[in-house]
């Protein structure tokens, strides 16, 4: 015959409570205070920690981008350019480097960054000449656009 | 050429315990085939009494991984052994960065004096004897 559930007089004891508790406490070992030892406090702290870590993945992208922008601003000010001028002129010269790479170049390849800053400066001057000079001067060299079709 | 990172596999089990039944079946049936398929891994089979059956994997960089094989069937042990044979001995933790270089800087890393005039750092030859 088919028995779907155990008989009513059959009792069972919980024997692996220790390991169930350890599964939670192992994620709380590096916390401060009693929440790294006491299960009741640790459950709340571990849940909050995991929730915060999921939400922080979206914030991390914003934070890193702000960090790169700060670094590029500092490096370009060393070469006499402000950040908006640097980035806009690089884009106009069709140099499509993202902020992460420019920040890494500024740290590890300072001479390359200096040449990028000089390029942006030159493109800026050509932009001013084109806007203010009114047609008599020849077009700037770095203002030419290359079409990749 | 590919060098297998797994050096040796030690199979420690008890000849009489009940939870080592899968290990004993593995030794009888599949151990020789496994050893022939992986000729560069040394397989040690040592019976010992009174302890849980273990599969010890030692790698070329020195890490030793112990896997419990109690109450596992012979096929599961074969799968586990092939998985260990394909691993390297690096720790299984979160990799912080997916890239690594030994030489991050070609032009010299930036320091606060890179873009300053060199009169600040360089002491030139003394022009007048002092």
Description:
The N and C termini of chain A lie far apart (76 Å). Chain A has five helices and no strands. Helices cover 62% and strands 0% of the residues of chain A. Chain A folds into two domains: 18-59, no CATH class; 61-132, c-terminal domain of poly(a) binding protein, CATH 1.10.1900. The model of chain A has no long low-confidence stretch (mean pLDDT 94). Chain A is elongated. With 149 residues, chain A is mainly α. Chain B is α+β, with helices and mostly antiparallel strands and 130 residues long. Chain B has a domain at 6-86: Glutaredoxin (3-Layer(aba) Sandwich). Chain B has helices spanning 21-37, 74-86, and strands at 6-13, 42-47, 54-59, 64-68. Chain B has a four-stranded mixed β-sheet with strand order 2-1-3-4, with helices on one face. In chain B, α1 packs across α2 (74-86). Chain B is rod-shaped. The A-B interface holds A 75, 78-79, 106-112, 114 and B 104-110, 114-115. Chain B: Its main location: mitochondrion. Chain B: This is Large ribosomal subunit protein mL43. Chain B: Residues 101-130 are annotated as: Disordered. Chain B: InterPro entries: Ribosomal_mL43, Ribosomal_mL43/mS25/NADH_DH, Thioredoxin-like_sf. Chain B: Residues 15-88 form the Ribosomal protein/NADH dehydrogenase domain. Chain A: Belongs to the bacterial ribosomal protein bL20 family.
